[in-house]
Amino acid sequence: MNKINNLVKKGMNGLKSQKHRGENKQSSQERQLNVQEKLQKCSLCQDRGIIIENDGAKPCPCMKQKSFLNRFKNAHFTREMLKSSFEKFNFDYYDRNSMDRVKNISYYDSAMIAYNAARNFVTDFLKDAHTDGLLLTGQVGSGKTYLACCIANALMDKGVSVLMVVVPDLLDEIKATYDQGRSGSDYSEQQLLDSARQVDVLILDDLGAHNYTDWTRNKIFSIINYRLNNQLPTIITSNLSLKELKEYLGERTTSRIIQMCRVYRLIVDRDIRIVKRHEKEILNLIQR
Asked: Looking at residue 113, which CATH number applies to its domain?
């Protein structure tokens, strides 16, 4: 009799466990649907691409902007960027014995904290499309751009729209729209700004020490301010400290960046790009 009772209990526990797993799976699916709903941008067509009117249908104006955004995004993701992944992130470049004097932790620990923050951002975004962004700081060649690319690729694998732009290049492209000699098929300033403002996740790479004018500061502020007000997450990489950012960009832009992004730092003894080049040359010599 006891054996029968034990079997009945085990069976009931198994059913409860299956039900719990089913609820968790459903909950996860619901979260994914909620994120997708929040990512819908067009109130006219609900992202269907067409507007139904009376007995007919016509293309929605949003399709032109989406088509442009897709071309713009593809132009900015290089083959090297698309290779980046969290699984390939190499902690060997970060010394366990060298210390960050500000935070009193090793370069390795600092990289580990930034890496975990990047992975958590992906997880958090898939649950809540309005999560905080990240500001990745550190000297040239410390792995900031690579980590940002890891985020971009992980999100794009989940169908999230991501735009990654190098800040000086974006500003040059905006300036180019003022050229009266351009062909009519080229993009407009408004298209460029709207793409950066409205994309699900924007990555601003190399917000560094450039020759900022009032015009460039205003363009950057316009993008940052729009995304802050609409709670759209932004990933920023910079070789400047917060104090230096304030000097170059001004207080109003820097204040908004701090409000919308959590700050992390990557530090290395040597430029990772130079180290990789030496490793490649040594490998080539060995293989000859």
From this structure: 3.40.50.300
Most confident of 14-28, 35-49, 140-154, 273-287: 140-154
Answer yes or no: is 187 within a domain.
yes
What are the Cα distances from residue 221, in Å, to 152, 256, 282?
Answer: 23, 9, 45
Q: What is the mean pLDDT of residues 11-22?
A: 45
Is residue 36 one of the residues assigned to a domain? no
Task: Establish if 285 belongs to a structural domain.
Answer: no
Q: What are phi and psi of 207, to 5 degrees?
A: -85, 75
pTM over 0.85? The answer is: no
Q: Which domain holds residue 268?
A: 62-274
Contact status, residue 49 vs residue 41, Cβ threshold 8 Å = no
Count of other CB atoms within 10 angstroms of residue 88: 9
How many domains are contained in the chain? Answer: 1
How high is the mean pLDDT of the chain? 81
Residue 115 lies in a domain: yes
CA dist., res. 206 & res. 138, Å (int)? 11
Residue type, 264: Y
